[in-house]
Amino acid sequence: MCFALARVMVRPSVQVLLAMSLTLGACDCGQGRVVRANGGGVRVTLVGVEAEAVTLKVELAGPVATSEKSAVIATLPLAVLVDALMPATYVAKVSSVDTNGATLQTVSIPNVMVSTGGITELTVDLSRTPAVRPAEECDGVDNDGDGEIDEALDLAVCVTCRDGGLIVPVDDARCGPIGCEGLDTIEVRGDLGPAGEATCVATRHGNVVNRCAGPMACAAPNGPLCPMGAESVLARKGVCEAMMNCLAGRPVIDRVANGTPCGSNRVCTDGQCVVVDAGVPPFDAGAPDPSGCSDGTREGFVSIATFAEIAGCSGGWATPGITLATVPTCARRSGNTGMNREGNGCSAADLCAPGWHLCRGKDEVAAKANGSCTDAVPAGAANNSLFFAVVQNSTNNTTCDTSTNHNDVFGCGNLGMQLSGAKNCGVLTRALASTQQGTCGFNEAEPNLGPWQCLGNMMSHLAEGTVVTKVGCPNNSCMYDGRAVGNADKGGVLCCRD
User: Fold this and answer.
1) For residue range 166-222, what is the model confidence (pLDDT) as tens digits?
2) Which of 409, 431, 435 is nearest to 420 (CA)?
3) N or C: which end of the chain has fewer CB within 10 A?
4) Is 216 left (phi over 0), alpha (psi -120 to 50) or beta?
5) What is the Cα Rg of the chain in Å?
6) Strand ranges (DSSP E) for 258-401?
C-alpha cells in the first residue's frame, strides 16, 4: 500500500506546515518514486531561480547528521531527491550558487518530517528571494563572490586584515587625534639676574603618530606612545635685561633700569653693563632687585623701565592674611618660578624681593603705577587669570576705607569682582568678597578652578583680609579652561619699592 505524496510550495515570505507522505516497504506509486523501506527521503522541486544561478544545493540537517546533494540547473522545474534519510525532523536549506561558487539565494525550511519509506515533497521558488551573499572574511578568499578579496571588513579599532590574517597595525585613523600636551613644559634656563643670560624654552610633544597600543586599544593621551618632545626657544634674555612671564608661555624681555648692578663695580646703562665711572662710589651690593619679586620675575606691571616702583608678583602662600602686618616666613623662596612654588610655609610678603613690601592700599598703588591698574595684566593674558592683592582695609560692602577692619581682599587684575567708582577704591579694580563663611566669594578664583582660599570661622566672610591664602591647588590639581592650575597661578600680590 502507498500513501499519496503531498506537495508543499515553499516561498521565503510565507511560513507553512510541511505535509509528509509515507510508503511502507519498497514500492512504486506510479510516479517513479521508490524509497527503501529502511529510510525516507525529501524531494526538492525548484520552480524559479535568478538568472546567475548555475547550481542548486540542498542540505538536510537532522539530529545526527547532515545530508547534501547538488544538481546543475539546466531547465525548470528541477527536482533533487535526498534519500536514505533516517526517520526524524530535519531543517532543509535550499540555495542557488553562481559560477564562482558564491551563494546567491537561500531559504531555510524548518520542521521537515521524514518517515520510513516516505518522501516529503518540497517545491521552492528562489526567484523572489533577495540575494544574500556570504559575508567577506579575513581569509584570503573572495567569500562574497564580488571579485575582491578581504575587502570592506567590519573590524575592531587597531585590528586590520593583511595577507588573509588579522594583525595589529601601528596606526589606525579611527583612533582620532591623541594629544600629548599634558607632557609639554616651559622652563627658564640660565641666570635671570641683571648680570646673567637666560632662555625661555618650551618643549612640545604634539600628537601620537603610531596610535595603536594593541588589538582594539588606542594609545592613551599623554602616555608612553607620545613622541619625544621638540624644544623651541621662546625668548632670550641678555645682560641688563629682565625676562617675565616665561612659564605662562608669553615671555616678555625688557631692559632693566639704568643703575641696576650687573657685576662688581658695574651697572646697567642703556642696556649695557658698564664699569662705574672713576670717582663714583661702587654700587651698593645690597640694592633691591629691580624685578621687585622674590623669584626675580614679575607677572604684572612687567616693564621695569616704566614701572620701576611697583611689580605684580605671582605665587602661592600658606600663612593666612594680607591686611595684617605680614612678614616673610620662608626666606622669600616662594614665587611662580621660585624654589617653593607651592608656597608651603610662606606668607604673602615672601613674594616680594628684599627692599620691597606689599603695596599699602589704593593711594600707594596709584602713586607707583602711574595712576592706573591697566598694566597689571599683560597683553594677551587669559580672562580670569590674574589677581594681585594689596593691603587695603574695608568695613563692609567692598568699600575701601581707612579703618583697621579686614573685610574683603582688594587689588588689580582681571580676576574677581569688578569695583565701581562708588566703592571709593581709586585705581584698584578687583576684589574677592564673600557673604558666606569659608569662601573668597568668586568661583573662578577658588578650587577647583583656582588656588585662592578664604577659610575661617563663622565670621570669616567679614575678615577675608586676615584669612586669605593661595594653596588651594597643590601639585597643579585644579583645572580651568582646559589647563592645569597650581598654587603659583592666578596671580599673587602687588609689591612696592621701599
Assistant:
1) 999 999 999 999 999 999 999 999 888 888 899 999 999 999 999 999 999 999 999
2) 431
3) N
4) left
5) 43
6) 261-263, 266-269, 272-275, 310-314, 356-358, 387-390
d(CA 143, CA 134): 6
Cα–Cα distance, 462 to 394 (Å, whole number)? 9
pLDDT at position 36: 44
C-beta separation of 201 from 268 below 8 A: no
Residue 17: pLDDT band (50, 70, 90) is very low
Task: Write the secondary structure of 129-168 as one string of H (helix), E (strand) and C (coil).
Answer: CCCCCCCCCCCCCCCCCCCCCCCCCCCCCCCEEECCEEEC
Under DSSP, is residue 422 helix (H, G, I), strand (E, B) or coil?
Answer: helix
Going from N- to C-terminal start, the domains of the chain cover 7-125, 288-498
Q: What is the pLDDT of residues 483-494, one digit of tens each?
A: 999 999 999 999
Distance CA 299, CA 311 (A): 8
DSSP conformation letters of 105-135: EEEEEEEEEE-TT-EEEEEEE-TTSPP-PPP
pLDDT, tens digit (0-9, with 9 covering 90-100), for 412-423: 999 999 999 999
CATH no. of 7-125: 2.60.40.1120
How would you class 243 by CB atoms within 10 Å of its CB: exposed for 0-12, middle for 13-18, buried for 19 or more?
A: buried
Q: How far apart are CA 412 and CA 244, in angstroms?
A: 18
Give which of 60, 118, 67, 121 is closest to 94, Cα–Cα. 60
The one-letter code for the residue type at 11 is R
Burial track 392-401 (b if 16+ CB lie within 10 A, e otherwise)? bbbeeebebe
Using a cut of 0.70, tell me whether the model's pTM lies above it. Answer: no
Give the bridge partners for 452, in sequence order. Answer: 470
* Distance from C-alpha of 250 to C-alpha of 495, rounded to nearest angstrom: 21
Contact assessment for residue 171 and residue 210, using Cβ atoms and an 8 Å cutoff: yes
CA-CA distances (angstroms) from residue 192 to 131, 237, 310, 488?
A: 78, 8, 19, 18
With b meaning 16 or more CB within 10 Å and e meaning fewer, what string describes 444-461?
bbbbebbbbbbebeeebb
Helix and strand element counts for the chain (H, E): 2, 31
